[in-house]
């Protein structure tokens, strides 16, 4: 191609761009994953019901609609055999609306938000922002009232967090915004909001603030009526029928393939939707043909968890029993005997904890240990930490490295400097909580936890190819390894 540009018309790259653009929140990421799985022939099951599984079939379930687990049962699977799992997470650092978000100051309508995770909050200033998330909607039909969960996303920019002019802040300490007082987005001016009151507001005033169900509506005291009207218009309901919501701010700029040679992806939420998508696509494609599960003795699984950015301690996080529950129920459903086989299955299982890695920054090279400098285009990064901030050990890293070598895929190593703190992942949580062998890996990226991150097109391909090969070949490779004998 002219100028050495990367061809992005075919393969995984356009698909991940579509996935990123469809997933402004964890709820939307799960919804998009669900759509892709159904299209690929996966059957949805519920944790609230008994499971009647069959070998050779493919299934998935969601929890809280912000975590999703999908799996394909090999045709040679018997209860007690292992699970081959790639785990990632659906959440990213962001600004979430407070339970009472209505803020009015100096003639402006503002929206109160709370910080979620460890974001680079200065990057949220001067961006064209909107809101997305889920609503709980009251619905009335034939005198009966029910409540539904509805995803919502306002496409156009409706908010902004403006920077202070440099003339009003001559400090030499750098930009250090106060997350309580400075990080408050502007929705509108009070004057314009008053002049442009929507008809629904007048109706509410005439009805003495009562809803269609005769209940006193206090939502306008908690949230700006303008915001509620925008949300209601988006989903096609009345503002007073919005009972509650979980909303977050998101950037309206779309994800794109960029750079002079079209070698990068510029996007929000690459950490960790990039790994989520690559693992999901790897599972789908490794189980797509009639014969793909013919000789598989294990269960191929992907688990995308919520709340990793805040420690995974929730009912739908990696610290919950969701992984153990899935393994237990699959084993029990396909167990014709009364013997307890889950413990044996766990010891035969393997988790790839896939979370984005820190690429070497050319302007901050001293932040990386000299012999461990992951580079873009260099393939997946195996993460090591002697203090178990990552769950990798010699056996698990060997297995993952061996798959790369067989397929001529690049592979890299990362160790944090001894004089710097080390982050962590879902890897140690799953390894210690469930007892499964685990390797921590991730694609290299820059600008981690910024509103706008970047990674390399090549590494998206490498990640997908590596994870697909893991699903297809782990059983045969693991059978050749002897450790606890």
From TrEMBL:
Cofactor: Zn(2+)
Keyword vocabulary terms for this entry: Aminopeptidase, Hydrolase, Metal-binding, Metalloprotease, Protease, Zinc
Any GO molecular function: aminopeptidase activity
Keyword Metal-binding annotated: yes
Keyword hit for Zinc: yes
Residues that span the membrane, as ranges: none
GO cellular component: cytoplasm
GO biological process: proteolysis
Any Pfam family: Peptidase_M18
Sequence similarity: Belongs to the peptidase M18 family.
Record's protein name: Aspartyl aminopeptidase
Organism, scientific name: Papaver nudicaule
